[in-house]
Target: DOCK2 protein
Amino acid sequence: FNLQLWNNYFHLAVAFITQDSLQLENFSHAKYNKIQNKYGDMRRLIGFAIRDMWYKLGQNKICFIPGMVGPILEMTLIPEAELRKATIPIFFDMMLCEYQRTGEFKKFENEIILKLDHEVEGGRGDEHYMQLFESILLDCAYQYPSIYNLVESFVSLVKGLLEKLLDYRAVMNDESKDNRMSCTVNLL
Model:
């Protein structure tokens, strides 16, 4: 097992699907349709490949936690529903791997909170993502009663943080200093 090779693979694949020229939602409707008809959404194809490769790592997955949390988060925040549905379960697998190794998933939790703040500040994330994140992780955890309560509390924490970050991002352009200050206090 060559850790550096796999690490390079995942980082390169995530860099590919997150490049600006593939963010179809930023294009005009006509350009979006033209690219979709000619090439399809390459992000989805590569995202599915990342997912498949992740699950083939077996016991080596633990080597990528917490290092791959940020890149996987960046990929799941792409506003493409099928890509999100296919890749958000990787987070549960990461949590499960760390839990089976250490009895908790604090490294994963700390990393996702840190990276989520950075990504939402950069303009990524939305209400739909928050709902999908919650439902997918809780559905995955349902099959593991021993970890369900920990996952539920983690999801609640991340959902609350994401709500506050999205509110903060929304009011940054607000004229009212009181609204901005109130939102900042909530976030802190």
Q: What stands out?
A: Residues 41 and 143 are 32 Å apart (CA to CA). Residues 145-171 form the longest helix (27 residues). Residues 3-174 form one domain.
